[in-house]
Amino acid sequence: MSDGPVLTDVRDGWRLITLNRPEKLNAFNEAVHAGLRRALAGAEADPACRCVVLTGAGRAFSAGQDLGDRVMGEADGPPDLSVTLETHYNPLIRAIRRLPMPVIAAVNGVAAGAAANIVFACDITIAAKSAKFLEPFASLGLVPDAGGTWTLPRLVGNARAWGMAMLAEPVPAESAEAWGLIWKAVDDGEFTATVEQLAARLAKAPTDGLARMKRAFDASWANTLDQQLDLERDVQREAGRSPDYAEGVTAFLQKRPPRFRGRFG
Ligand code: LHQ
What's the rounded Cα separation, in Å, for the pair 229 and 243? Predict the structure, then answer.
């Protein structure tokens, strides 16, 4: 399925969404945002879809905001960048976090600016070893956006988050893995197979359970331990009533692999 500069490939239980402006290193403009918004909405609306993979065409994952786009500078005065954030990036980050299934960032090449921060909003990141992560905002007099000031210190701590943001030096994929910024850096030759195997595995997972995990982990940042224990009690009540819990226990007792149905909502 093609939607302008964003492609959707429907696989067995999962969807591969590809940013497809390789001649611009998949930089984000309004058409990319619109296509990605539709692609994520399509994944959510399809009950057979239990995992989303986000990747880039060509040699980059994405160079972030298209700096040549008209929203980055107006002929008649300075731009109001908050409009772009409010209209596009903030809803995108919220959509990824609220998508009721795991989102894999498959980082095939450089991820810069807002695109790096979109990656950090995903649930699991696999990067090719040749990929790198760059927070270039300091080179532009800007502040990390698309959730970067929130996700970065939580993923890697203040020292590395502030170093990445203030020095704007690229972080190679293997360092990103060592820092805990991403799940795994894999050899370039194994990248596609690793991503596809992971997506296929997650497409057979108890999807609603993973969606509850996303909710619980995300809520934890604003909660005290007491509040979080209450929340765990509540989501576990829901989870315990789900057919996938019954299947998981039955499969364990029958010593066979579980056959989770995933999405019930
Ligand atoms: C590009 C871009 C690009 C256009 C490479 N735009 N053309 C959002 C909106 C609202 C508020 C403000 O903030 C934001 C969030 C942001 O994302 S701001 C940050 C925007 N991104 C950047 O600052 C990254 C700029 N790009 C780079 O630093 C490098 O291009 C990277 C490190 C990504 C890749 O370097 P190389 O592999 O050496 O490639 P290159 O620099 O030669 O780029 C290839 C082409 O892509 C080149 O065009 P050309 O016509 O000369 O071949 C670049 O101009 C173009 N390109 N990034 N963001």
Answer: 24
Domains of the chain: 6-203 (3.90.226.10), 207-254 (1.10.12)
Q: Is the CB of residue 66 below 6 angstroms from any atom belonging to ligand 1?
A: yes
According to DSSP, the β-strands at 132-134 and 171-172 are antiparallel
Ligand 1 pocket residue status of 93, Cβ below 6 Å = no
CA of 108 to the centre of ligand 1 (A): 16
User: Among 19, 23, 25, 149, which residue has the most ligand 1 atoms within 8 Å of its CB, making it the best to mutate?
Assistant: 25
Residue by residue, pLDDT tens for the chain (265 residues) are 665 899 999 999 999 999 999 999 999 999 999 999 999 999 999 999 999 999 999 999 999 999 998 777 766 788 999 999 999 999 999 999 999 999 999 999 999 999 999 999 999 999 999 999 999 999 999 999 999 999 999 999 999 999 999 999 999 999 999 999 999 999 999 999 999 999 999 999 999 999 999 999 999 999 999 999 999 999 999 999 999 999 999 999 999 999 999 999 7
Instruction: Please state, in angstroms and as integers, the Cα–Cα distance from residue 96 to each residue in 38, 86, 93, 120, 246, following that order.
Output: 12, 15, 5, 10, 28
Is residue 145 in contact with ligand 1, taking CB distance under 6 Å?
A: yes
Verify whether ligand 1 is closer than 6 Å to residue 32 (CB atom).
no
Residue 180 is classified by DSSP as T
Q: Is the CB of 113 under 6 A from ligand 1?
A: yes
